[in-house]
Amino acid sequence: MYKIIKNSNFWFIFSGALSVIAILAIAIYGLRIGIDYKGGTVIEITSNETNKVASLKEVLDAQGYSEYQIKESSNNTINLRLETLTNEQHIAFQDAAKVKIADYAESSYDTVGPTIGKDLTKKSIWAVIVASIGIILYIAFAFRKMPKPLSSWKFGLSAIIALMHDLLITTGIVAIMSHFFVWMQVDALFITAMLTIMGFSVHDTIVVYDRLRENYIRNPHDNIEITAEKSINQTLARSINTSMTTIIVLSCLLVFGSPSIRHFITILIIGITLGTYSSIFVASPIVVRWHRKLFRRG
Questions:
Q1: In the chain, pLDDT over 90 holds for what percent of residues?
Q2: Are the CB atoms for 177 and 184 separated by under 8 Å?
């Protein structure tokens, strides 16, 4: 049997160190904000040439644009997003693109203002807050028959602490990667990835919590540490196997999928790995530590 609860101090120190590093990374490097949030220009381009994407990249690189997104869709259409262009810059880009791409044509040209970006930011923050509250309420309801002195609310709050741990460290890693890689940006897909990570992490945590509840109901007089240790070991293989199969699929998408979703897949891989770790080494030890304090007070 793995002594995970017994060595919980080590895991708390390790997670704390990762959290501090993540905060420092965010403070030092910041996040590379995408067009969805800071605004920019969106151009829809049509062309029948096979090498149009490579040609566009040559033009953009030659004109000094480092932050841009190129998404190729059906019907020979390309969606290009880059920083806000002035009229002169737009004309210069068009002229250079038409030299590289003979049948270059723009089917639409729009500018996304920073006001829309601020609105998206507010909605993204609210999405995370509402999701967190929903998770607490759901776990509190699902575990409402938890035997005393264990509390369903404490299970819900412990799960949220583990979730915040996952999101913070994931964001810190994104900050480090965005410093070195232009394609790692904070956009709408970043928020989608974060919410997906929350769902996956909670799923893993609830599996462990549910087994802890079953074992505690079956043996209410056992030491909570022994019960939690047993519960984690009973669900350990399932949690790791579930995460590994998901990560294998995501890794295939990362290698063979479109470059436009590369940052999305990378964030998911990082977050799911952290979610599996926290459900085993963070969420349950927090519940046990909380129970110990209540037991001593009682």
A1: 23
A2: yes
